[in-house]
Amino acid sequence: MVQVVRRSAFTLIELLVVMAIVAILIGLLLPAIQKVRESAARAQCRNNLKQIGLSAHNYAGVAGVLPPGQLGPYPDIGRGVPPFDTQFAGVLVYLLPYIEQDNLYRALMRDLPSDYLNLTAVYPPWWNYASARAAAQMRIKTYLCPSDNPYSNTRMTDILTQTFRTPQGFDLFVGGFGIDQGGADLGRTSYVGVAGYGGYVNDSSVDRYAGLFCNRSSISLTQLTSGDGASNTLMFGEWLDDFAYGPRLFAPAWIGVGSLPTAYGTASTGSTGIFEFNSKHTGVIQFCMGDGSVRGIRKGIAPGTAEYNNYIATSGWHDGVAVDSNQIGN
Question: Is the pLDDT of residue 37 over 80?
Fold first, then answer.
């Protein structure tokens, strides 16, 4: 007797149905996976900011005051730039020993005068010293948001931000090295100090809303507490130095980019973000407050709005303006 063996198999229609179901499941799962990844990245970013904030507190515990935003023009701290005739080292340099980068800090300082980072000292910019140039190339994980990739910039790595006095109030100077002029070698950052409305430029209309990190600033924690209060004052925030979307052209270097003014609001779309605090997170920019806590501030806070007024007041440490944090939080 001939025995017939039947083999089961999918018909073409059944196969197409299965493929459609798999495609639908993938379509449902991918956004969920991306959301989990972004949530994890945001949590790590929040932890980075907290570590930076705590390191600033530890520095203040030793030095008596918070480090300066940067070592820019002196003695007239509101003078414009260029000329590039002062150190232009930023706040993140001062924090290196407090984020377990003691060896890097010592290597950076090897060729520098012992008082190079003193508030009243004036020396040539850091890029004139071999040890500083070499140390500036170090990639520091704590200074990088996992959602951001500042190393993908193709045009310039910025090495300083400086507000300066003008007849209209103040302006912002941002300068850097082109990628083919040494910018490609520099270590980047996703975080900068908060300079307040326009930093401190020797103009009372601007200086009233000065932040914790300005040119040659030296604010103590006692001053902060007796001012607007540590929990009410922005300390460090996220900055892309570029648009949130599209090819990355610019990125900030940790060695020199110390602080950023808040006068321009917060970035909202792909057409803004160069001069505003900005992030790769959806709808929110994370900030470390003066007490070390981390809060999210909404994107899209524009001048001329109630939210903007609250944002500016929160960025200053001694303006005396009561702030409704719910208007700007996210």
Answer: no
